[in-house]
Amino acid sequence: QVRLVESGGGLVQAGGSLRLSCVASGIIFSGNALGWYRQAPGKQRELVARISGGGTTNYADSVKGRFTISRDNAKNTVYLQMNSLRPEDTALYYCAADRQSRNLDRGLPNSWGQGTQVTVSS
């Protein structure tokens, strides 16, 4: 049974930083692409960042230069370092995994976490 558990969300002032973590179990972690999505109230869910099994990363334009996705295969963990946070980054952030990166791009990964709330105050 696949399980993805996020942590690290919280309330931060604009300009601050947070690091999200997602620990995976029940999958061959190194063989999966991993991604972070977010969804704000009244908005569509968007893929913020993803990292392939080989370590290739992609980012949404809205977070380029501010967010960094990374993975530690020894710990079955994917991270999202978020710097220079803005109020518009406020959302529920979800971790996701799939063996194919394109499924993350399509918003159709096999596995989802429960989400962790990030709130950025102005």
Task: Describe the protein.
4% of the residues lie in helices and 50% in strands. It has one helix spanning 101-105, and strands at residues 3-7, 10-13, 18-25, 33-39, 46-51, 57-59, 67-72, 77-82, 91-98, 111-112, 116-121. Strands 2, 4, 5, 6, 9, 10 and 11 form a seven-stranded mixed β-sheet that branches. Strands 1-3-8-7 form a four-stranded antiparallel β-sheet, with no helix packed on it. It has one helix and eleven strands, in the order E-E-E-E-E-E-E-E-E-H-E-E. By secondary structure, the chain is mostly beta strands. It starts with a strand and ends with a strand.
Briefly, what is this?
This protein is mainly β and 122 residues long. The protein has one helix at 101-105, and strands at 3-7, 10-13, 18-25, 33-39, 46-51, 57-59, 67-72, 77-82, 91-98, 111-112, 116-121. The longest helix is centred in the last third of the chain and has 5 residues, at 101-105.
Question: Which features would summarize this protein structure in a list?
Answer:
122 residues, mainly beta, seven-stranded mixed beta sheet, four-stranded antiparallel beta sheet
Structural class: mainly beta
| Spans where pLDDT lies below 50 across 5 or more residues | none
Secondary structure tally: strands: 11
The percentage of residues in β strands lies in: over 45%
Instruction: Report the helical percentage.
Output: under 10%
Question: Could you give the order of the helices and strands?
Answer: EEEEEEEEEHEE
- Tally of alpha and pi helices: 1
Distance between the termini: 40 Å
What Rg is obtained from the alpha carbons, in whole angstroms? 13 Å
Largest sheet: 7 strands, mixed
Which overall shape is indicated by the principal axes computed on the Cα atoms? globular
| Overall pLDDT confidence | 96
